[in-house]
Specification:
The protein is about 40% helix and about 20% strand. With about 475 residues, it is α/β, with parallel strands linked by helices.
């Protein structure tokens, strides 16, 4: 059995060591404390997990949607019961402020489980009369879903992928990010407690090689990744070998457009939500903030006043707004981007430096940073930084700002602040993005489809739409009358 500071793989309803008995450390990014030594899954472990998941298919599929929904509902209740524990786990493993994790991580995961618990009994086909008879369609589960997660919302990502997959009757193998493996392992235990049968929900922590073993595996019917754009392309290429279905939730460099008639206080709130929640480590962030030239100074004055009130500190402290970057390495990359911003001539308005936090000297804390006077060709404006760095760009004309907002390889999200409803809908219609907000930013109700276009991904999570990515349609023609063969 594992010692208290060790975590094993979760395969077929129990903790098991990895085949080659390798471990990796998972670290609190604020303090550097080793939280656990985690078994490092490899190809052989993915084989074992996929075999368990395949073996579990008949029994899981045999349950009615109502029965599967009941189990998922119990799991959502257990996640809520363990809210404090899971929120603290996410805070320690990912460095996210404890002020955020109960709602943004735990409640969001539980909401998703609850939503798909309800949907499990409502997966429907269609029926149509046609020449010579009628046809109907049967939405059927795909089989084994392989899922690979990023480190910024580990529990939420596990729930967002597992809930629709399980509701639709699939079994599941999850490879969490090696930086944040703990909450998915805990979720697996809770799933068992809720009544999820052994083999239906498996978790294999490990590195990229474990993810690749999943995406290339012939026993996996679908792969769903949340990660960077380059990883997405590799996963899609790997999945092509066995012609799997693929869903990709990738990175972004999203625009937030603030028109001259916007409620500026709301626009500033939106810009804060779009840049500094989870210390900027959010894929949908609106990091290119286009502000109409006539209100730019007023916007910046209000913005800076509020940014400088944000509390940078130990994520365990309830008043902390901004925690450490996920790792010192990632923190250094964010600081390099800030340096590149300064070098390229952007005007640093606030932040722009590393902050030392007493008791958390290991962590790389980056002060919320705002650059003004940015140009579209600057590196900080073109590339995803995944840290608390906002670029403010000026514009004067609607067509101009739409063209500039769309001038990116990405298409994850976009936001518009204006009081002119006609303009709001016209601009949103012209923006190339999968998730859009009018007069708000970064809220993701579970009922709303979530996913990017262009270089930001393929497919949608959440909403009834997600179920279509976890089922395949069988068409059945039923003849009426004799068969009129020409032979
Ligand atoms: P990565 O792309 O580096 O990693 C994502 C996951 O893929 C990790 O579990 C990683 O394992 C695994 N992986 C790495 N290489 C391979 C491979 N060749 N085959 C299969 N799996 C592999 O992303 P990060 O974890 O750094 O997360 C940040 C990125 O995720 C950002 O670009 C962000 O925009 C994006 N993201 C997108 C979201 C969305 O919904 N659109 C939401 C959240 C984040 P390991 O950890 O061991 O490297």
């Amino acid at each position: 059995m594992p010692q208290s500071a060790q975590r094993y793989l979760w395969i077929d309803g129990r903790f098991v060591p990895s085949r080659d008995d390798q471990f990796f450390k998972t670290i609190n990014p604020a303090t550097g404390t080793v939280l656990a030594e985690v078994a490092r899954g490899g190809g052989g472990d993915i084989d074992a997990a996929v075999a368990a998941a395949r073996a579990a298919i008949p029994a899981w599929r045999a349950l009615s949607g109502v029965e599967r929904g009941r189990i998922l509902h119990r799991l959502s209740m257990l996640v809520r019961e363990h809210r404090d524990e899971l929120a603290a786990l996410e805070m320690r493993d990912g460095g996210k402020p404890i002020a955020e994790t109960p709602e943004a991580d735990v409640d969001s995961g539980a909401d998703c489980l609850e939503y798909f618990a309800g949907q499990a009994s409502s997966i429907q086909g269609e029926y149509q009369e046609v020449d010579g008879g009628f046809f109907y369609t049967r939405p059927e589960p795909l089989g084994v879903v392989g899922a690979i997660g990023a480190w910024n919302y580990p529990l939420q990502i596990a729930c967002w992928k597992a809930a629709p997959a399980l509701a639709a009757g699939n079994t599941f193998v999850f490879k969490p990010s090696e930086l944040t493996p703990l909450s998915a392992l805990r979720l697996a235990e809770l799933a068992q407690e809720a009544g999820v049968p052994a083999g239906v929900f498996n978790v294999v922590p490990g590195f990229g090689e474990a993810g690749q073993a999943l995406s290339t595996h012939p026993g996996v019917d679908k792969i769903s990744l949340t990660g960077g754009a380059d990883t997405g392309k590799r996963v899609m290429a790997d999945a092509a070998g066995t012609l799997k279905e693929v869903s990709l939730e990738l990175g972004g460099k999203s625009p937030l457009v603030i028109f001259e008639d916007a409620d500026l206080d709301n626009a500033v709130s939106g810009a804060l939500l779009a840049n500094f929640f989870t210390q900027g480590e959010i894929c949908t962030n609106g990091t290119r903030v286009f502000v109409h030239e006539s209100v730019r100074t007023a916007f910046l004055d209000k913005l800076v006043e509020r940014v400088e009130r944000l509390v940078i500190g130990d994520p365990a402290e309830p008043e902390t707004d901004v925690g450490p970057m996920i790792s010192p390495e990632h923190g250094r990359q964010v600081l390099e981007y800030i340096e590149a911003g300064k070098q390229s001539g952007a005007r640093l308005v606030t932040g722009g430096e590393r902050v030392t936090v007493a008791g958390c000297e290991h962590g790389v804390f980056v002060a919320p940073t705002v650059f003004d006077g940015c140009r579209d060709d600057m590196q900080i404006v073109r590339e995803e930084i995944f840290g608390p760095v906002m670029s403010v760009l000026s514009f004067t004309d609607e067509d101009e700002v739409v063209a500039r907002a769309n001038n990116t390889e990405f298409g994850l999200a976009a936001g518009v602040f204006t009081r002119d409803l006609e303009r709001a809908h016209r601009v949103i219609g012209a923006l190339e993005a999968g998730i859009c907000w009018i007069n708000h930013y970064n809220i993701t109700p579970i009922e709303m489809p979530f996913g990017g276009i262009k270089g930001s991904g393929i497919g949608k999570e959440n909403s009834r739409r997600a179920l279509s990515h976890y089922t395949r349609i069988k068409s059945v023609f039923v003849a009426r009358g004799a068969v009129d063969a020409p032979y």
